[in-house]
Write a structure and sequence with these properties.
heterodimer, A: mainly alpha, 10 helices, 0% strand, globular, B: alpha/beta, 8 domains, 5-stranded parallel sheet, 31 helices, 23% strand
Chain lengths: 181, 1148
């Protein structure tokens, strides 16, 4: 089996593999998935790639990022597998390994969580600014401009800037980081 | 010595099989069932695969047929050795094998069967409607009803739990058969405890109105004082009371009287404490405020239990549990398919009822919402099986085949343009003809098979016509959406709740899912001695497996009774009137004097017939002495009038026209005994069915019709003479051919029951395939088991073992075979001729040889057997291996051998788990088409996945290829899901080549048995007579019968043994009433009759130069009489004159 290109993913995905080991490829997860049209690899394919150690292929696609954690697949899997958890672990591996193709979404999640960490909620303007800065790409804000204006007009985001640390969630985040070790 | 007696609990398919096997052997059987009819699940199923017909009646006795009923088992059953108790439950078992004390509880009947005429007035007036369980709740029935539409019995039954005791039926019953007044509710004492006066008073009022005696107490203390004073049967107590609360009272009251039924009353908010009280022994609880009806129905249920509390205790030698299984209820739990919510979602059983002629649609398939005919049906497999979310880590084994059958049936009944789709994960066609059946379904019936699991169902909102929308993904990952009118859920098995409870109460081990666990290598022995499990109690089985298991359980019981020194009933002591040959001869010389009796059935008959003209016409026939009209012949009183009439007028033949229950054979026999009339000279006509068939007929027309029918019968009676039953000397030794585990088990089983067995083995060692096997998948030691069995066999004084021996030639005579045995390697051996009454063909089979194109000098491509032996001989060291590939269906399930060998997938899982255990780093790949890990073997599939074995599914059109590469084998296949080629370098490739039977056609022919298309033994009926051949003295078991695991080989051997013992236990066999014969004087010995006889009942006696007949084998079908060119083959009792005269009467 050709696994030469697995670039150290294998070690990271070993626990995820054991999570889905008893999968019988019935396709329940795939047919259940509401985001399936945005995925180029179906969930069933992802499990198959994991199982047959084709992790490079798995990470060459961004399909698992599309998982919106609706838990349909977990609810319906006849093998009782925790598929939504497996998806989020894949996301974590991608972020941990700082894989280039997932940079954007990793940074997005990071900026989002930082905002939550600081304020106990998302401050949209701060979150957006931080995200744009971390992307280090001056063109990106323009790509979002029209959406931003729409949101502003509807009052969905507020143009306030507060960079000070006011939140009390630091302890919680610390604990989570510990648990993830 | 006493006669042996066995209790069979459960009178479904397997219960009936066990009971009949024991009864035919000559033991007494007590057959009970908790339902109100016999026949079990099969009463609701009209058609079985592969024939789309039913063959339930094929289980009936073949010889001495007149001792039992000879009609459809759904209509009822009797056998002189079987006592049947319906609406009866087994409560407990005590004692040791050979001396068991069983406690039974029987629902008392409120309807006197000797008075009920089945007129149906009670049903008409009954105001209570309940879901009819016979139609799976698709229709309603009354609280008083006829138990099954097919039954011969016309006695009504009352549903105790539904009946409100309104008494309307009692008032209307014309014969006074219903008696509610017998209930003495006064003696049922109820104590009501509540601190609120208004509650106390109103409850007292309600309960008194129902006739109970009620006492009230305002506190716990007072209640306890009252209890000291007198005993109570039931207590209703409030929970929240000042002073002593209800829970405390419950504990104290239970101390005083443990049998007291306590019902708690509580406010809605305090349900928790009521539940707590139930854990402490309360029976149930009522939430305040409650409806008086709820209180009354709960009280009536308790009262009903009280009524039947007097249990019946029976002494038996052995107990067979045949309680069957239940189906998974898809509305429990998450219910993703909306069962019970969406119209058009039904279970398999409901579908069978929907399409049944006796079902709610009367044979039409109508959409439940729109009322339009159904055109698109889908079947979903694995609903409540192979689904850990519903607590089922197992496969239910039979649903795949049931669903295919239902799809074919639907097409056959409702047109080939009906669209049928079957959604499945693995199509488990695990029997020898199953895969063929699937292919036929796909190719000939155009049933669409889709490998996908449907996650959930919803109504198609775009269409709004009740269509159901199913969304699924294909192998390539494309999403599809399909609409269906009807969705059938193939619901899985669950243990029968009552049987699990019984097992727990009586110290029997159950498996993690609640099914009864059997001991190693046995499918019938429970952990408790003397108690056997028959049928699907230890896991769902199809008809043939259930029947096999039930027969094997009967053998277990037979052994217990034999060991306990119990006798069988002397078979040839038959009824006096049938043995009195002189009497019969005198009767034959007498002039026929015929009495014709018609039952008026209330006034139905006289209103639809011109009785006077009928009488006039019939009396013109000289032999017909008189025509009488009588009433209510179905009641005991009616029968007595008829007996009196016969004794007064003294006819020697009787023509009886009445309803079905009156002309039931058993009843005619009773009539014969009581009146002295020979029962074979009674001709019967089901007159009511004819009346019902033509409801719009005018009186003259109907009179003519009935007259013609009666004339035919009168002419039959005129020419019919009593035929003495024949008795046949029957050899009581057995011959078993084959010394594998099946042969060993069959020989031991027969020998253990006291009959001599010759066992012939062609090799010089006994043990067959088991010799090369080490462990089973569940880790059982095969060699230890085999050693034990071989020792038992060698030291058995009833067994003669002939090693290195072959059967040379066979002679067949009525009641006996003679076989010449010769030593294999001694050509000059004159041989030894043995005489035997039965033959068991256990010649076994083996693994098919491996056919690979590639040159393989290093022996890297092995069969499963070669691999296992290589490991045992230490030629293969698992620890030194890196990669092993297993290829399933290598040479089976294709054009060459189109059957599934059943055992290879399990063997592959076993080997994979073994390799992973010895060497966790090894890579094991299993290439399969459908994983056949049926039943509880599914857990080993899961285990293999968990241990890291990788499975690749392959397509039968694109089989894996192998290629030698130095010391490795390169395996090329495709990953169907990822749609890419896969190449694996393997140290070894293990092929599952399947099983080849080893039953030479010449050998089968010698004994009058035959082979099926795959060269296995051909069963007389693959479903209902799974180990018999058409020749009633020849049986088969083990691999020569079908591909099977060790336990399955053992169970077929045990089944074959009891089927043989039921013949061996008789010194003489008694024939049926109608038996073929040959008029030797006119016979030209063309032997056409011998070739045609389907039962092998005709032989050529070359010394006497004539055709002889085995009267026990003959089933009276008459094929020989039809084929004989000279009219020399005849059926005794149905001669030419009689037939021609009847035809004359019918057409004149």
């Amino acid at each position: 089996m050709g696994q030469a290109n697995n670039k150290g993913y294998l070690e990271q995905t070993e626990t995820i593999k054991t999570m889905i080991q008893t999968c019988i490829q019935c396709g329940t997860c795939t047919a259940s998935c509401p985001n399936i049209e945005f995925m180029d690899i179906t969930p069933r394919h992802m499990w198959r790639l994991l199982m047959t150690d084709h992790v490079d292929q798995l990470f060459s696609s961004k399909s698992f990022i599309m998982c919106s954690s609706c838990y349909y697949c977990t609810l319906r899997c006849p093998r009782g597998l925790e598929l939504t958890n497996a998806m989020s672990q894949l996301k974590q591996v991608a972020s941990k390994l700082r894989l280039k193709q997932f940079r954007r979404s990793s940074l997005f999640y990071e900026a989002f969580l930082n905002s939550v960490k600081n304020h106990g909620r998302v401050k949209e303007m701060e979150f957006m600014t931080n995200y744009f800065i971390s992307m280090k790409n001056p063109v990106i804000p323009f790509a979002y401009a029209s959406l931003g204006i729409k949101l502003l007009a509807k009052g969905k985001i507020r143009p306030e800037f507060s960079f000070g640390r006011k939140g009390k969630l630091t302890a919680l985040f610390k604990k989570v980081a510990e648990l993830e070790e | 010595m006493a006669i042996g007696k066995t209790l069979v609990a459960g009178a479904g398919l397997s219960g009936i099989r066990s009971a009949l096997d024991l009864a035919e052997t000559g033991y007494k059987v007590l057959l009970i069932d908790q339902s109100d009819h016999i026949g079990g699940l099969l009463c609701q199923l009209d058609n079985q695969f592969p024939t789309s017909k039913c063959g339930y009646c094929r289980m009936l006795p073949m010889f001495d047929r007149d001792q039992s009923s000879q009609h459809c088992l759904r209509k009822g059953l009797f056998h002189k050795n079987i006592e049947i108790l319906l609406s009866t439950q087994l409560m407990s078992v005590e004692g040791e094998p050979g001396d068991l004390k069983v406690t039974l509880k029987q629902n008392p009947s409120l309807i006197d069967p000797s008075l009920c005429t089945g007129c149906g007035e009670c049903e008409r007036i009954c105001p209570v409607f309940v879901d009819d369980p016979f139609n799976e709740g698709l229709t309603k029935r009354k609280a008083v009803y006829l138990p099954s539409p097919q039954s011969f019995s016309n006695t009504y039954t009352i549903d105790y739990t539904a009946c409100t005791r309104c008494g309307e039926c009692e008032k209307i019953c014309p014969t006074g058969a219903i008696k509610f007044i017998d209930q003495n509710r006064e003696k049922f004492k109820i104590l009501v405890v509540d601190d609120e006066k208004i509650v106390r008073d109103s409850m007292k009022e309600w309960l008194k109105e129902e006739g109970f005696s009620v006492t009230a107490a305002d506190s716990g203390q007072k209640a306890l004082e009252l209890m000291d004073d007198r005993p109570f049967n039931m207590m209703l107590t409030d929970i929240k009371m000042p002073g002593m609360d209800g829970v405390e009272l419950l504990a104290k009251a239970k101390e005083k009287n443990d049998d007291l039924c306590v019902i708690m009353m509580t406010a809605y908010a305090a349900v928790d404490s009521a539940v707590e009280a139930m854990k402490q022994g309360a029976l149930d609880y009522l939430t305040k405020p409650f409806d008086p009806d709820v209180l009354i129905s709960m009280t009536l249920k308790v009262y009903h239990e009280f009524e039947i509390a007097e249990a019946r205790v029976e002494q038996v030698d052995a107990l067979i549990l045949a309680g069957g299984t239940e189906f998974f209820k898809p509305n429990l739990g998450k219910n993703p398919y909306g069962y019970g919510v969406l119209p058009g979602v039904v279970t398999g059983m409901e579908f069978e009822r929907l399409i049944s002629g006796t079902g709610p649609g009367k044979g039409k398939l109508i959409h439940p919402k729109t009322g339009k005919p159904v055109r698109k049906i889908a079947w979903f497999q694995c609903v409540g099986s192979r689904d850990v979310q519903t607590g089922a880590g197992f496969c239910s084994s039979v649903c795949c085949m049931i669903s295919i059958k239902e799809a074919i049936l639907a097409k056959e009944k409702f047109g080939q343009d009906l669209e049928t789709t079957l959604f499945y994960m693995d199509m488990r066609t695990i029997g020898k003809s199953f895969d063929d059946y699937r292919l036929k379904a796909r190719e000939e019936n155009q049933i669409r098979f889709v490998r996908a699991r449907i996650h959930s169902l919803d109504e198609d909102l775009k269409k709004d016509d009740g269509s159901l929308l199913a969304r699924y993904v294909d192998m390539q990952g494309n999403i599809h959406e399909d609409d269906f009118d009807l969705v059938v859920l193939a619901t899985g098995q669950r243990p029968a709740k009552q049987m699990t409870e019984l097992a727990l109460k009586n110290d029997m081990i159950i498996n993690p899912w609640g099914f009864i666990e059997t001991t190693p290598f046995s499918m019938i022995k429970t952990s408790r001695k003397g108690i056997l499990s028959g049928g699907s109690l230890s896991g769902l089985k199809d008809i043939s497996e259930s029947v096999t298991c039930a027969s094997a359980a009967a053998l277990g019981a037979c052994k217990i009774m034999h060991e306990a020194g119990k006798k069988t009933i002397d078979a040839h002591a038959i009824d006096m009137d049938e043995t009195d040959l002189n009497g019969l001869a005198v009767l034959a010389r007498e002039n026929p004097k015929i009495l014709t009796v018609l039952c008026s059935c209330g006034s139905d008959l006289t209103q639809t017939l011109d009785v006077e003209s009928l009488k006039l016409d019939l009396n013109r026939i000289p032999e017909n002495k008189s025509v009488e009209i009588m009433d209510k012949l179905c009641t005991d009183e009616g029968k007595k009038t008829l007996v009196d009439m016969i004794q007064k007028t003294n006819p020697n033949r009787l023509v009886l026209g009445a309803c079905l229950p009156c002309i039931y054979k058993q009843r005619i026999k009773e009539l014969g005994k009581e009146s002295g009339l020979h029962s074979s000279l009674v001709e019967t006509l089901d007159i009511i069915s004819i009346l019902k068939q033509y409801p719009d007929s005018q009186i003259p027309e109907m009179t003519q019709r009935i007259e013609r029918e009666l004339k035919i019968l009168i002419s039959k009676a005129r020419f019919k003479n009593p035929v003495p039953k024949e008795r046949l000397e029957s050899n009581q030794n057995a011959l078993v051919i084959g010394g594998g585990i099946a042969g060993i088990t069959a020989a031991l089983s027969i020998a253990d029951c006291g009959y001599h067995v010759d066992l012939v083995e062609k090799d010089d060692t006994i043990g067959g395939n088991l010799l090369w096997m080490d462990k089973t998948v569940d880790g059982l030691d095969i060699q230890a088991y085999l050693d034990e069995k071989v020792k038992e066999l060698e030291f058995h004084n009833q067994v003669t073992i002939h090693k290195k021996t072959k059967t040379e030639s066979t002679g067949q005579h009525p009641g006996e075979f003679s076989t010449l045995l010769k030593k294999e390697d001694e050509p000059k051996d004159p041989g030894e001729t043995i005489l035997h009454g039965v033959t068991i063909l256990a010649t076994g089979g083996g693994q098919a040889p491996l056919e690979v194109d590639a040159d393989d000098p290093q022996q890297k491509e092995l069969t499963q057997k070669e691999f296992e032996m290589g490991v045992q001989d230490q030629k293969i060291d698992p620890e030194k291996l890196e990669t092993v590939v297993m290829i399933q269906c290598s040479g089976t399930r294709d054009e060459k051998r189109n059957y599934c060998s059943r055992v290879c997938c399990i063997r592959a899982l076993k080997n994979a788990l073994f390799l992973k255990e010895k060497n966790p780093d090894i890579q094991v790949y299993i290439l399969y088409r459908d994983m056949m890990s049926y039943g509880f073997y599914e857990q080993y599939y899961t285990n293999a996945k968990n241990s890291g074995v990788i499975f690749f599914q392959y397509d039968s059109a694109d089989k894996p290829l192998t290629q030698m590469q130095e010391d490795k084998v390169l395996v090329k296949t495709r990953d169907l899901l990822l749609d890419m080629p896969v190449e694996i370098e393997a140290d070894y490739v293990i092929h599952a080549t399947g099983i080849l039977p080893d039953l030479p056609k010449a050998l089968a022919d010698q004994y009058g048995a035959s082979l099926d298309t795959f060269h296995f033994f051909k069963e007389a009926d693959s479903k209902f007579r799974p180990v018999d051949s058409m020749n009633y003295r020849v049986f088969s078991c083990g691999l020569s019968l079908k591909p099977c695991t060790i336990e399955e080989a053992v169970v077929t051997a045990e089944a074959a043994a009891i089927r043989a013992i039921r013949i061996l236990s008789h010194e003489r066999l008694v024939s049926g009433k109608i038996v073929a014969d040959t008029r030797t004087a006119t016979c030209s010995m063309c032997e056409m009759c011998v070739d045609t006889c389907p039962y092998g009942a005709r032989f050529v006696d070359s010394i006497e130069e004539r055709i002889v007949i085995d009267p026990a084998a003959c089933q009276g079908c008459g094929v020989c009489a039809a084929v004989c060119p000279s009219g020399s083959a005849v059926l005794e009792g149905l001669d030419m004159r009689l037939m021609l005269d009847s035809i004359d009467m019918a057409v004149s």
